Amino acid sequence: MSHEEHAAHAAHEPGPQSAVADGESPDGPNLDFAGTTPYEDYVQADVLTHLQHPRSDDPGEMVFLVTTQVMELWFTVIVHEWETAARALREDDVPVAIAALKRSVRELEALNHSWKPLGQLTPAQFNSYRGALGEGSGFQSAMYRRMEFLLGEKSASMLVPHRGAPRVHAELEKALQEPGLYDEVLRLLARRGHAVPAAVLDRDVSRRYDPSPEVEAVWTALYAGDEGAELVRLGEALTDVGELVWRWRNDHLVATRRAMGSKTGTGGSAGVAWLEKRATKNVFPELWTARSHV
Ligand code: HEM
Predict the structure, then answer these.
(1) Ligand 1 mean position to 47 CA, how many Å?
(2) Residue 195 lies in a domain
């Protein structure tokens, strides 16, 4: 028997190890459950894996839909981490805030890696299901909007698309009215004796955060001091977050440029030209500008 024949033969006739490997061996996992499996009860995999309803016959639509769903799940985890961090900062618990931000950094990396399956779409490939999306656009993602709100990119008009969905609208309204992550950081800096101006501390948190020269000076002084200080480590965790959010926006922009050039978006915007403007916005602006003065 040749080497290949031997391999094929072995594949068809399981040896004695396969009995040990399968679930019926005495030391194998349990097979017998009265109802659904405990895994299912926890993960709800049956629900999760039946939420895919492609709208075209194109085989490439499935990965577009699932990538979008996977990203929605990551947005959900990241919002959870940043809300945890904001709460911890409010309670002056910086280590808990830094731990949540660091988890979110790993999650943002995983989120950004999820661009892989969509990063090289050609216009013809995208066109094969683009029409089926109708006016649907990631612009209408409420969970992404909550991320942006937490980052200080607040805008009441972003609630308008969600008027027809009461739960989503209520969650977004709450996120709009609550202080963002950076508001909590700046309040903490003020409580620790740093000269954050009253105008920043008392700002209307339902509006977009505007950079302040005084806040820039606070970060400059902190960064010129002890690198190991808790507030510098907090600043670096926030910078990591800002960098990875910027990378998500840019990866999205490049994927969009490859898939549709300068056509208008399904959501009605100018497309790439509109996304380019969005991608230039700096997350936690003074953490970037302060670097010029250290
Ligand atoms: C390669 C495929 C994709 C293309 C061609 C594309 C295209 C676009 C375009 C043109 C916009 C601007 C709004 C509009 O007019 O529609 C947009 C916005 C957006 N897309 Fe995508 N997109 C793609 C994949 C994704 C995926 C997988 C997600 C994940 C959820 C996503 C999330 C978003 C978000 C959150 C916005 C709003 C950004 C903001 O408000 O700054 N996109 N997209």
Answers:
(1) 25
(2) yes
Whole-number Å distance, alpha carbon 57 to ligand 1 midpoint, is 22
The DSSP symbol for 264 reads P
**Burial of 240 (C-beta count, 10 Å sphere; 0-12/13-18/19+):** middle
CB 54 within 8 A of CB 130: no
What pLDDT digit, counting tens, does each position of 164-209 carry? 999 999 999 999 999 999 999 999 999 999 999 999 999 999 999 9
CA-to-CA distance for 189 and 200, rounded, in angstroms? Answer: 12
CA dist 64 and 45 (Å) reads 20
Residue 17 inside a domain? The answer is: no
Length in residues, the chain:
294
Round to whole Å and give the CA distance between 96 and 103. 11
Q: How many domains does the chain have?
A: 1
Task: Give pLDDT tens digits for 206-232.
Answer: 999 999 999 999 999 999 999 999 999
Residue in 120, 137, 208 to alter for ligand 1 test, most ligand atoms within 8 A of Cβ = 137
> pTM for the complete prediction?
0.92
| CATH number for 94 | 1.20.58.480
